[in-house]
Write a structure and sequence with these properties.
The protein has 223 residues and is mainly α. The chain is built from ten helices and three strands; from the N terminus they run ααβαααααββααα. The protein has helices at residues 2-24, 36-43, 61-71, 83-91, 103-112, 119-135, 138-148, 158-166, 175-183, 198-214, and strands at residues 50-51, 150-152, 155-156. The chain is globular and about 65 Å long.
Length: 223
């Protein structure tokens, strides 16, 4: 009886692994037509979304490094999780300007999951993050994030946001504009890169300082 149960559980585990690999692997090469967060915006909030995929070479290097400086400075070297930031986040009681989630975790959440803090969702996020880090190169992970992250209400990705807010393609974003976009990522529905508050302007200045300390776009040259 125990052996039979083990075989069933093993079969379920292998099936789950194969199905999730099939769910994640194609997006290493293909541009997703939508994401879980975009679908939620359309279905739950009944909003028209603005989204246009562009390849890595059509996104300003200023935006790539600004987002890394703001969201996940260890992105080039970690394997999906920044355990030091997680421990710091657990110890801090005050509101933080930066969360403990890495860019890889945010890709897993935005592309496949839903908002929330339940253990089930966090467990799925961790598992999908491991798959993404295993199956995709780092540059693809960052390219995906720059295309599916929400930079404003119903505005997803660098290209759609840049054209709506700054009336130019994402390839022509300046460091100042890129830092404003990165500054609103923690709460893009309440903060605006197009009409920045004093807080957003100050945070964008901090991001530009971090960019300079990291060495600018050269920091990502090894991706």
């Amino acid at each position: 009886m125990a052996r039979r149960v083990f075989r069933i559980l093993a079969g379920v585990g292998v099936t789950f692994l194969l199905l999730t690999i099939l769910m994640v692997l194609p997006w290493r090469w293909l541009a997703p037509p939508t994401s879980a967060f975009m679908l939620r915006e359309q279905v739950v909030n009944d909003n028209a979304i603005h989204y246009r995929w562009v390849s890595w070479d059509r996104i300003s290097p200023h935006l790539a490094i600004a987002v890394v400086a703001s969201e996940d400075q260890k992105f080039p070297v970690h394997h999906g999780f920044d355990f030091e930031s997680i421990l710091q986040a657990l110890e801090e009681k005050k509101n933080r300007r930066r969360g403990a989630s890495t860019i890889s975790q945010q890709v897993a959440k935005n592309l496949f999951l839903w908002p929330g803090r339940s253990y089930v969702r966090k467990g799925l996020e961790a598992y999908l993050t491991l798959l993404i880090e295993t199956l995709w190169p780092k540059r693809r992970i960052l390219e995906m994030y720059l295309n599916v992250a929400e930079f404003g209400p119903a505005m997803f990705g660098a290209e759609a946001t840049s054209r709506r807010l700054f009336h130019k393609p994402a390839s022509r974003l300046s460091l100042r504009e890129a830092s404003l976009m990165a500054a609103v990522l923690p709460n893009p529905k309440k903060m605006s890169a197009g009409r920045p508050s004093a807080y957003v302007i100050g945070r964008a200045w901090e991001i530009r300082t971090w960019v300079r300390k990291l060495g600018g776009a050269r920091y990502l040259s090894g991706l």
